[in-house]
Amino acid sequence: MAKKAVKSPDEMSFLDHLEELRWHLIRSTLAVVIIGSFAFLMKGFIFDTIIFGPKNMDFPTYRFFCSIANWLNQIQSFTVIDSSFCGDEFPFSIQSREMGGQFSAHIWTSIWAGFIVGFPYVLYEMWKFISPGLHANERKNSRGFILIASFLFFIGVLFGYYIVAPLSINFLGSYVVSESVLNEFDLDSYIGTLKISVLACGILFELPIIIFFLTKVGLVTPELMKKYRKIALVIVLILSAVITPPDVTSQIIVAIPVIFLYQISIYISAMVLRKERRKAEKEKKANKNVKPN
């Protein structure tokens, strides 16, 4: 039996594109489910080591800030960094108040772990769907897209896990309005705080990739980004306030890498435009050299 001929993107109808997208989504979902199944079986490591790691005072981030706080407090006459990083344990406990709470948390945590670990493959499936609509030179110039985007995402995830999440847990877990109120957090609330910190940073660190494609389609220019740099700074501070506890130190710690990424994005946007201009000049010269019949 003859194989069905593969249609080019120009020959595909809208329904053909939807069918193609459906299979990419199915393969991405299967990858997430398979990886999530392995995460489900690794319950002890996922929860005791990773999820509840920032709850313990021996977490590397707390030890690092504690050592800095002790050093700065020795050479300064005032407290520079909060010494709560040096405590023995957090004054809160985690509980599950629903019959299926722990099982539900186990399922959803495994799915999110599958998405984070399988992010490069999900990105690959998205790229496979988009790339046929690009020109050959555009596919060539975007060859390292999956590698760079995955690298930035994982850097953001690590930043969220080791910086943003511990700062949030330390502040919110230690905050009290009265000694009469006990901090007993629900399991879903704790995992939700950790998840938002990790995923939000992973997405924020994709800023250079987003700017690259927005520049390619003509929606963003380096001049525009420089013009609205102050507004972007305010937006960055607002985003930092959303994903971190409401203290100035945490917001600054989160804002610094995002501002750095914004500056890198300006250079990336300028680089893309330079390449586009060179390409246009080469095509113009080539058209001039073509002699009319």
TrEMBL record:
It comes from the Bacteria. Keywords: Cell membrane, Membrane, Protein transport, Translocation, Transmembrane, Transmembrane helix, Transport. One of its GO terms (cellular component) is TAT protein transport complex. GO terms for molecular function: proton motive force dependent protein transmembrane transporter activity. It is a multi-pass membrane protein. Signal peptide: none annotated. The keyword Transmembrane helix applies. One of its GO terms (biological process) is intracellular protein transmembrane transport. It holds the Pfam family TatC. It is found in: Cell membrane; Membrane. The chain crosses the membrane at residues 30-52, 105-124, 145-169, 189-215, 227-246, 252-273. InterPro entries: TatC. PANTHER family: SEC-INDEPENDENT PROTEIN TRANSLOCASE PROTEIN TATC (PTHR30371), SEC-INDEPENDENT PROTEIN TRANSLOCASE PROTEIN TATC, CHLOROPLASTIC-RELATED (PTHR30371:SF0). Belongs to the TatC family. Forms a complex with TatA. Part of the twin-arginine translocation (Tat) system that transports large folded proteins containing a characteristic twin-arginine motif in their signal peptide across membranes. This is Sec-independent protein translocase protein TatC.
